[in-house]
Amino acid sequence: HTRYPLVTGVQTCALPIFGLSAMIGCSGPREPAPVSLDPSSASRTAIDGLDSDRDGVVSAAEWRRSPALAEAAPRIDTDKDGRMTPGELEMRLAAYRSQPPYLVLMLRVQRHGQPVPAAEVRIVPESFMGKAFRGYAGTSDGEGRVSVVSGDGGLRDALAPGLYTAEITASGTTTRLGLEVAADAPGGREIGRAHV
Question: Please, is 3 exposed, middle or buried when counting C-beta atoms within 10 Å of its C-beta (0-12, 13-18, 19+)?
Fold first, then answer.
């Protein structure tokens, strides 16, 4: 099978079937209170969960088990040594505090450059982000556009800055792609590429 790179990450993703284009912008003036995140605790939880060789850091091979961390690795691994330290991850998570509390996410699902209607999309926060982070779901329209709504129905298309996995299901196939929702993450980008 052909492997295609994620456009914004350093990882490759085997058999991504669907592309997901994401544009991120600032949310409007009527948003709920910011989501609480403890960067130190979240980074320790993430490192503990992924550090299979127990050396205290997460290697590139280990971070690939988390699509969201793999997507955000260029902004987390600041010294570019191919290892993610607790301090580097904590610094990245702490940076979300200086960003708008919610960012608007516009999604489009495509296959071979064509819109995919009726694709089910779930945006799931990484577990180490904490219980305050909401999951979102939506279905693509005829143009492949997806409007996601929080599980409690409270928020539409506005996500707290953080690390998420996008799960896209259509035609019986599910593709998982990493998604960093952040004002300083590359915006208007394709985060997955279709398999030909």
Answer: exposed
